[in-house]
Amino acid sequence: MNKIRKGDEVIVKTGKDKGRRGTVIEIQSDGRIIVEGINLAKKHVKPNPNVGEPGGIQDKAMPIEHSNVMVFNPKTKKGERIHFQVEEDGNKVRVFQNGDVVDI
Questions:
Q1: How far apart are alpha carbons 98 and 80 in whole angstroms?
Q2: Distance of alpha carbon 44 from alpha carbon 57, whole angstroms
Q3: 6 conformational bin, left if phi > 0, alpha if psi -120 to 50, beta if neither
Q4: In terms of C-beta density within 10 A (0-12 exposed, 13-18 middle, 19 or more buried), how is residue 11 classed?
Q5: Is 44 inside a domain boundary?
Q6: C-alpha span between 61 and 99 (Å, rounded)
Q7: pLDDT band at 2 (very low <50, low <70, confident <90, very high)
Q8: pLDDT by residue (tens digit) across 12-53?
Q9: Percent of the chain having pLDDT more than 90?
Q10: Is 66 helix (H, G, I), strand (E, B) or coil?
Q11: Which range of residues forms the domain containing residue 44?
Q12: Judging by beta carbons within 10 Å of its beta carbon (0-12, 13-18, 19+), is residue 29 exposed, middle or buried?
């Protein structure tokens, strides 16, 4: 089980986008994640008339290392660490360091 999952809201703690928030779109197998609106790069795209895709310069979200982001806690309005905790009924849940459950 990963501490950061697809759909989590994360906050960037280092790099050019430090302090910005976004939603995780994809988690890659090498430990990098793609966050919506974070770490954008300009890509030159050729037009494809078969698909109807126009050419030009487009913004593309590039991967960022998972160690450079923290899961955003809406109660404290900050990024916080996460650990796993086993409940009494045997379910394993993600929990912020202050005890709040991440998965609601």
A1: 9
A2: 5
A3: beta
A4: buried
A5: yes
A6: 33
A7: confident
A8: 999 999 999 999 999 999 989 999 999 999 999 999 999 988
A9: 82
A10: helix
A11: 9-73
A12: exposed
Burial class of residue 43, CB neighbours in 10 A (0-12, 13-18, 19+): exposed
Q: What is the pTM of this model?
A: 0.81
Bridge partners, 58 (sequence order): 43
Inside any domain, residue 92: no
- Does some domain include residue 62? yes
CA distance 69 to 57: 28
- Name the token pair of 65: 């290392």
Count: domains in the chain: 1
Q: What is the CATH number of the domain that holds 17?
A: 2.30.30.30
Residue with token string 């974070």: 38
Residue 3 belongs to a domain: no
- Tokens for 42, please give them: 């300009």
